[in-house]
Amino acid sequence: MSTVQRVNFEPVSDINPIHRRDFPLADASLANPSNVVALVDGEWMKLDASAKLARATAIASVGDPALTISWPLFAERGRYDIQAMSQRKMPILFMGQYEFNTRIFDASVTIASGAPITTMLQPLKVATVTIGSRNYTGLVGAAYADNAAIVGYVTRLPANNGGQLRFMSGWAVRNGST
After folding, report:
1. Number of domains in the chain
2. Distance CA 141, CA 49 (A)
3. What pLDDT is attached to residue 27?
4. Which of 49, 88, 170, 175 is buried deepest, with most CB atoms within 10 A?
5. Model pLDDT for residues 68-126, shown as the tens digit of each residue
6. 3 in a domain, yes or no?
7. Is 79 part of a structural domain of the chain?
8. Is residue 177 part of a domain?
9. Which domain covers residue 157, as residue numbers?
10. Contact between 126 and 152 (Cβ < 8 Å)
11. pLDDT bucket at 178, cuts 50 / 70 / 90
């Protein structure tokens, strides 16, 4: 099981070719580091109907899978530059191929038709996970027949990577999910 720390999402590959994009938050209070459900780096976000960032899943419901395309948040909790903006914009990794280590995952959970994270190049999807005593939107194992959008593939298991999951990006929309 992972633990949330100050830095939870670290690049393994070069980040220069990745297109990072800032979007305003649908709920600006999530940028406040003293909020008990503040966003942390490595959580997964979606765009709502107003093109604002919202968590990819409802974190009140553990195991809730994301059925839409989502992107990882690339900003540590409490960053001053984000606090200074009136719109509270947050950066996501919007386009491009990348490989990252993340602490925001649950390797043991099985959600819907998914599977625990146990093998290299296993597909990954986004769902509500519990780390410590709090819920986050993070990565869980998927199956190729899964209805949820596949957002990446395992490139190093947590047991061989200091407790972090290493994954590469890669979208595959399954069974009519958008």
Report:
1. 1
2. 28
3. 93
4. 88
5. 889 999 976 555 556 555 667 888 999 999 999 999 999 998 877 778 999 999 999 99
6. no
7. yes
8. no
9. 9-172
10. no
11. very low
